[in-house]
Amino acid sequence: MRILFRHFVVVALVCNVLSAQNSPKISGLMFSDYFYNVDNAVVAKKDLSGFQFRRIYFTTDFAVADNFDSRFRLESDQSTNSNTNGGKLGVMVKDAYLKWKGIFTGADLVVGIAPTPAYDVSEAAWGYRSLEKTIMDLNGIVSSRDFGVDLKGKFTESGSVKYWFKLANNSGNAPETDKYKRIYAMFQFKLTDNLQATVHADFASKAQKVDAFDKQAKSNNQFVGSLFLGYKQNEIYSIGVEAFTRTIQNNYAPSAGEALQNQSSFGISIWGWKTLTESLKLVARFDNYDPNSSKDIDGNSFLMAGLDYKAAKNVSVIPNVQLFNYQVKDASGKSLKDLTARITFAYSF
Fold it and tell me: What's the number of CA atoms in the CB half-sphere (13 Å) around residue 203?
C-alpha cells in the first residue's frame, strides 16, 4: 500500500510540474550506426561490424524565473569512457548550468558545466555532429564542456559582433583536482547575411614539468588559437573552413638525453554540403592534423562523404564512408589506415 501511495505521489508531482506555467522543455537526440571496418590500423578490428550508439541526449530546459534559465542534460554512448565498470551503457552529466539573462545590456552570465567557446559556432554551422565531431573536438584539442563561469553577449545592437569569455577548471565534466585554470575568449562576426567568422583563443595554466635532461622544473602551459569561416546559401549549400594551432610549453623531447622543447600542433578542416533534392543532401569533409610539427610520422588525414536522406523533419538516414590515413607505417612500409562504411541514423525530439 505504501509503495502504491509513493508511486501516486510521484506521478502527481510530475503531472503538477508538467501542467505548471513554467513547465520544463524536454528534448533529446540519438546518433546510431551500423558499421563495418573495411580496414583498420589495429589488425584485430579489421572486419569488425555491428550496431552502436555514438550519442544519446536527454535534456531538460527550465525557466527558473523571468531572467533565469537552467539546463540539465544527460548523455550516454558506447565509448570506453562512458561505459560502466561492468562494460554496460553508462550515463553522465553533460550540461548542468544556470543562465542569468540580461545581467547587463546585451549580456548573459552562465554558471556551471556548460559548452566551451572553441567550436560551438562551427559545430552548429557544420551541422553534422551526427557523422563526426569537429576537428578540435575529434583530436582532443579543446573539451566540449568545462565547469566555470561564462559571459556571453554582443558588442553591437544588431548582433553582428558577439563575444564569449569563459573562466573554467579545465577538467571537462570531471571534478577539479588542482589550482590551475583555463581562460577562453571567442569573437563572432556576422560579415554578411550568409557569411560568418569566429576568432578563438584560450590559455590553460598547468603544473610545471621536470625536464629529465637538466632536472629543472619548466613551464608546461598551453595556448590554443583558431579561426572559422562559414558560408551558407539558404538551404541550397554550405561550406566551412576551420583551422587551429596549439602550443604546449616544454612538452616534447626529440630523443632520450635531449632537453624538452615546445610541442606545436596544427589542424585544418574543410567541409560542405549541397542539397540535391528536397529530401537528399550530399555531405563531404576533409581534415589534416599534425600533433607535433617537429615529428613527421604522427600526423593523419581524415576524409568523409555521405548522403543525408531526410526521412522526416527530425529523422535522417545517412549512408557514409570515413577514411583515416596515418603517417605511421607498418613493418612493410605501408601507411596504416582506418576505412569504415556506415549507415547512420540520427533523430531528435
Answer: 2
Q: Is the pLDDT of residue 19 over 80?
A: no
What are 268's strand-pairing partners? Answer: 243, 288
All three cell numbers of 96, joined, read 548542468
Q: Which domains does the chain show, CATH number per domain?
A: 26-348 (2.40.160.10)
Nearest CA among 38, 78, 126, 45 for reference residue 323: 38
The count of other CB atoms within 10 Å of the CB of residue 126 is 25
Burial 137-155 (b: 16+ CB within 10 A, else e): bebebbbbbbbbebebbbe
Give dist(CA 61, CA 146) in Å, integer: 19
pLDDT in the model for residue 87:
76
174 to each of 178, 209, 225, how far by Cα in Å?
12, 22, 24
What does the pLDDT read at residue 22? 66
Position 131: which residue type?
A: L
Quick one: pLDDT band at residue 259, thresholds 50, 70, 90? very high
Output 329-337 pairs: Cβ under 8 A, ≥24 positions apart.
Answer: 329/297, 336/41, 337/39, 337/41
Question: CB 302: neighbour CB atoms within 10 A?
Answer: 20
pLDDT of residue 335: 87
d(CA 172, CA 118): 13
pLDDT tens digits for 123-162? 999 999 999 999 999 999 999 999 999 999 999 999 999 9
CA dihedral 34, 37, 41, 42 (to 10 degrees): 80
The continuous run of DSSP H or E covering 121 comes out as helix 120-126
- Distance, in Å, from the CA atom of 258 to the CA atom of 349, rounded to the nearest integer, reads 56
